[in-house]
Design a protein that fits this description.
Blueprint: H1 2-58, H2 61-75, H3 99-114, H4 131-138
Length: about 140
């Protein structure tokens, strides 16, 4: 009987040794992968910083003004003036708006066009319940 217990105990020790060995190396492998990912993230952050600096240099107003002066005549570039912009009244509300939203936008546009600075903004319509909330409220 003792020999059976010794054999089972030995098998259990071997199983635990194998399990701890596997966990140790699996953990080391995952830590290496995490470190590799951190290095990749740092590299990407550096690349983003470089690209942001390059973007800032490319959009420098002095540089753009110099390029516009240099290439303006051959490209037909001209300064922007106020006549190139449309009037606020020419802007139509998007078609996907609901009726009450369209009315509020039209009232705001009318107030802006009439120049009524002291006029009170139109009253906002009462909020409508969302369909999912209305369905939940209807449940017994």
């Amino acid at each position: 009987m003792r020999s059976v217990i010794y054999v089972l105990a030995l098998c259990l020790v071997v199983a635990f040794a194998f399990g701890s060995y596997w966990i140790k190396y699996d953990t080391q492998e995952r830590l290496e992968k995490i470190e590799s990912l951190r290095e990749q993230i740092n590299h990407e952050h550096e690349r983003i910083a470089i690209l942001e600096a390059e973007w800032a240099w490319l959009n420098n107003p002095d540089r753009l003004a110099r390029l516009a002066a240099q290439h303006g005549p051959e490209l037909g570039l001209q300064p922007i003036d106020g006549a190139q912009f449309g009037a606020v009244g020419e802007i139509a509300p998007p078609p996907q708006l609901e009726e009450h939203e369209r009315e509020v936008i039209e009232q705001l546009l009318a107030a802006a066009l009439s120049g009524a600075e002291g006029a009170a903004p139109p009253a906002a319509p009462a909020p409508r319940p969302r369909p999912a909330v209305a369905r939940l409220a209807a449940l017994p």
